[in-house]
Specification:
CATH class of the largest domain: Alpha Beta
Number of domains: 2
Distance between the termini: 25 Å
CATH topology of the largest domain: Aspartate Aminotransferase, domain 2
Oligomer: single chain
Bound molecules: pyridoxal-5'-phosphate
Order of helices and strands: EHHEHEHEHEEEHEHEEHHHHEHEEH
CATH superfamily of the largest domain: Type I PLP-dependent aspartate aminotransferase-like (Major domain)
Number of helices: 13
Length: 355
């Protein structure tokens, strides 16, 4: 099997794939509803929330769209400092919202003072923040940003994309005051792609009641109506829900804190290796991601060639992404990857450099 140091889709454990092969059930059956409820309840623990977690039959970007459609009639502020936060901005614009942006330079975090200034200039119904920018490898200080929102604009609905961090880094939805926290299956949760999860606060759903044109597929009030019956308005992605139910038990068996520590240690190892070899991380040093290490490609490696070399040893890394595609490369340290896998990768990179 290839070990993919790619920020999604990541490797899936064989027993998790196996869990998907159980026979289908009618989604309006008691048997299915029981599994759906169990998986969604377990997910609450992962999200550190007392509120509901929606299970969506679409990738995480769909939840970005759900957020902007449900939680603002008009004014949204999008914090942007990378390709995925830029996508969320585009998504808000494409849905006809009056969208403002708060930019930080790529490689830098969105800073609390910057946000405070923006909130003093205009009132926003909702804000979008990407916790872990998978393009630049920057982790934004979401807890601190939430504090600023509570202080300056307490009624603003806080939406956070933790697609490439949730399950690998501790994100405490309720304690931090996040209203809508979304993630995808194919990153730190180490499931196949196609499922998304979104923790949603009561006050966010209350806000949705005042918003028109929420659409149908992404109408969270309709989702909620069906969730109360342990189901979804449309046919759910049943095999992935089987896998989620199974994988969450594996995640809790490892222990959440142990899992977070493993992710931090893996990325730490890669940063240390990079710096020791004269390779500079793309992000500033106070905001570096624990799940995806983005490195400046100053040695001008052809990543396709590097991957050909690594694939002989059953490993692969990732290109840069978005506007920095050609000037960076990325090493993801997420999901099932172990410290030993990281050692193997670094040994491989070391040999590549000797060539
Ligand atoms: C991968 C990713 C997305 C897109 O998720 P999909 O599941 O592919 O829709 C969004 N945001 C971030 C931060 C990501 O890493």
């Amino acid at each position: 099997m290839t070990r993919m140091f790619v920020p999604g889709p990541v490797d899936v454990a064989p027993e998790v794939l196996q869990a998907m092969t159980k026979p289908m059930l009618p989604h309006r059956s008691k048997e299915y509803e029981e599994i759906h409820r169990r998986a969604a309840e377990k997910a609450q623990k992962l999200f550190y929330t007392q509120y509901r977690v929606f299970l969506g039959t679409h990738s995480g970007s769909g939840m970005q769209e759900a957020g902007v459609r449900n939680f603002a009639s008009k004014d949204i502020l999008c914090c942007t400092n990378g390709a995925f936060s830029e996508r969320w901005y585009q998504c808000a614009v494409a849905n006809g919202k009056q969208t403002n942006r708060l930019d930080a330079e790529w490689g830098k975090a969105i800073l609390p003072d910057q946000l405070r200034d923006a909130l003093k200039k205009k009132h926003y119904e909702a804000i979008t923040i990407v916790h872990n920018e998978t393009s630049t490898g920057v982790e934004n200080p979401v807890e601190e940003l939430c504090k600023v929102l509570k202080e300056v604009s307490p009624d603003t609905i806080i939406m956070v994309d933790a697609v490439s961090s949730l399950g690998g880094v501790k994100v405490e939805m309720d304690a931090w005051g996040i209203d809508f926290l979304l993630t995808s299956s194919q990153k730190c949760l180490a499931l196949p792609p196609g499922l998304s999860l979104a923790g949603t606060s009561d006050r966010a759903l209350k806000k949705a009641e005042s918003v028109e044109n929420r659409g149908w597929y992404f109408d969270l009030l309709l989702m909620e109506k069906h969730r109360l019956k342990d189901s979804t308005p449309m046919t759910p992605v049943i095999p992935l829900i089987y896998a989620l139910d199974f994988q969450l038990d594996r995640i809790f068996a490892e222990g959440l804190d142990a899992r977070f520590a493993r992710h931090a240690a893996m990325s730490q190892k890669v940063y240390a290796w990079a710096l020791a070899n004269g390779l500079q991380p793309f992000p500033e040093d106070n905001c570096r991601s624990k799940t995806v290490v983005t490195i400046k490609n100053e040695k001008k490696w052809v990543i396709g060639d590097l991957n050909k070399f690594l694939l002989q040893r059953g490993m692969r890394i990732a290109n840069g992404y978005g506007a920095i595609k050609d000037v960076t490369f990325r090493i993801a340290t997420m999901g099932e990857t172990s410290l030993k896998d990281v050692d193997n990768l670094l040994a491989g990179l070391q040999d590549f450099m000797k060539q």
